[in-house]
Specification:
alpha/beta, 2 domains, 6-stranded mixed sheet
Amino acid sequence: MVLLELEEVTKRYGQLVVIDRVSLRVDEGELVGMVGPNGAGKTTLFGVISGDVRPEEGRVLLDGATLNRLGPAARCRMGIGRTYQVPRPFGGMTVFENVLMASQQGARLRGWESRHAAAIVLGRTGLQSLANRPAETLGLLGRKRLEVARALATRPRLLLLDEVAGGLTDLEVAELMGVVRSIRSEGVAIVWIEHVVRALIDTVDRLVCLASGRLVADGAPVAVLSDPAVREVYLGTDVAEDAVVHR
């Protein structure tokens, strides 16, 4: 069943068209990867879905209901959670307090229930041992995990991951992939923007490519990576072939 649907979404900044009539469907429990060059409009598209960015044209639907007039808080409470490329924790608060706030504001939990939910999320994302650390003291992997944990604490049905593997070592990427698979196994639909291509092809059901604000490919990961248009705008022939070989 379709969970998220974008219908001919367009976003402009002055004369610059950042998102150009993009239509996309994501089913319940589906894991979709998104690739594209820098400046392709991927993060802006996430903003359109989450409510941070208002499109000039088109519709965003969740369960068939149009969300265009709703802001980020309302969409979060309806089940859309997201991370940001640059982690945005409350630095002076502890890791636990960051996740607790997300459970209270996003999932609207209170009292013992919110604390219990936050503790579970810390366990799922491997942050238990860091629960009492100020968020500002975390390393990159810790901040990336906290970004995922805060989004997860809102109890999303759709989770938008924006380059959560960027800057991590191969081992750290593998650990993060395990977290993503665990989230998906519980029925959460995920759209994952990532430049670490192997992380996507080893994890996702479907891959889409965005370039110059347009969707240029949508399909099975190997098929998309083999598409000449995708190689031209993003991956480069050698990278694409290498990624397919290691599938």
